[in-house]
């Protein structure tokens, strides 16, 4: 290899390394956490798939809390939760059957939860949504991917005390630690639930890691084989 070839090789190898370093280890676009959570709360949010004494997972308990406390204002369409007044409308079941499809996520099919396209839902729920807007000043957002957008620390602190994080917001404080000793635990379970909708369970992420390793190994092996083939070809053509 001549000097020019050497410079090119170093340049391309170097820029590839820098690219993946930025992507994987020092990603400037990655959400940076500024909101603190205590140890016990972290233990709940980190393990949405863990079973509790009740025999349900933390995520399932969080989903029940979400439906009871949040679905009067918020939908979470990715998991088939629609605002209460819409879900209670007898015509809604029919919309779910005709325009929706059962939720399928990370290898599990949830036959009793339906994903309905945004436009269909918003057209059907127009009056309910406008009613919320009239009383709250704005439409409470759909929370399907709020975990990814805001991160767990923000969600936990915001749900526990909306005014402290977003002064002037019309979202009410639903769990107050002063009156409910389990408030923090409940909020943590809701955040764990929102996390479980957006991130794969441990088994699925292990599978994805293995797939990633296999793909990269395949590229390396194919690259080496091609390199060898090129050498042979150059030899046959008389360049070596
Ligand atoms: C009375 C209606 C109401 C209820 C009940 C309610 N919210 Fe909200 N929520 C709102 C409104 C309105 C907003 C928009 C707030 C804003 O941007 O000022 C909001 C915003 C949010 C946001 C987004 C905050 C942001 O940074 O944009 C999250 C997350 C959220 N709510 C979670 C929840 C959860 C979880 C519950 C149940 C524990 C809940 N909400 C219950 C009305 C409600």
UniProtKB/TrEMBL annotation:
Signal peptide: none annotated. One of its GO terms (molecular function) is electron transfer activity. The keyword Heme applies. The chain crosses the membrane at residues 6-26, 209-227. Keywords: Heme, Iron, Membrane, Metal-binding, Transmembrane, Transmembrane helix. Heme c binds at residues 70, 74, 138, 150. Coiled coil: none annotated. It comes from the Bacteria. The keyword Transit peptide does not apply. Residues 57-198 form the Cytochrome c domain. This is Cytochrome c. It comes from Aquifex aeolicus (strain VF5).
């Amino acid at each position: 290899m001549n000097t020019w070839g050497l410079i090119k090789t170093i340049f391309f190898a170097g820029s590839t390394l820098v690219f993946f370093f930025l992507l994987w280890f020092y990603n400037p676009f990655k959400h940076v956490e500024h909101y603190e959570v205590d140890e016990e709360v972290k233990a709940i949010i980190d393990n949405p798939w863990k079973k509790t004494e009740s025999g349900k997972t933390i995520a399932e308990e969080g989903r029940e809390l979400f439906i009871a406390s949040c679905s009067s204002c918020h939908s979470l369409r990715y998991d088939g939760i629609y605002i209460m007044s819409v879900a209670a409308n007898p015509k809604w079941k029919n919309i779910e059957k005709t325009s929706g499809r059962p939720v399928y996520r990370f290898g599990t099919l949830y036959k009793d939860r339906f994903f309905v396209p945004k436009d269909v839902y918003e057209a059907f729920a127009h009056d309910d949504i406008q009613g919320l807007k009239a009383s709250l000043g704005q439409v409470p957002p759909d929370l399907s991917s709020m975990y990814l957008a805001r991160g767990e620390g923000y969600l936990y602190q915001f749900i526990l005390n909306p005014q402290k994080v977003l002064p002037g917001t019309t979202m009410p404080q639903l769990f107050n630690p002063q009156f409910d000793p389990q408030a923090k635990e409940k909020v943590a379970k809701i955040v764990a639930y929102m996390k479980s909708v957006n991130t794969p369970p441990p088994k699925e992420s292990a599978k994805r890691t293995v797939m990633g390793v296999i793909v990269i190994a395949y590229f390396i092996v194919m690259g080496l084989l091609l390199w060898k083939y090129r050498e042979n070809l150059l030899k046959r053509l008389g360049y070596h």
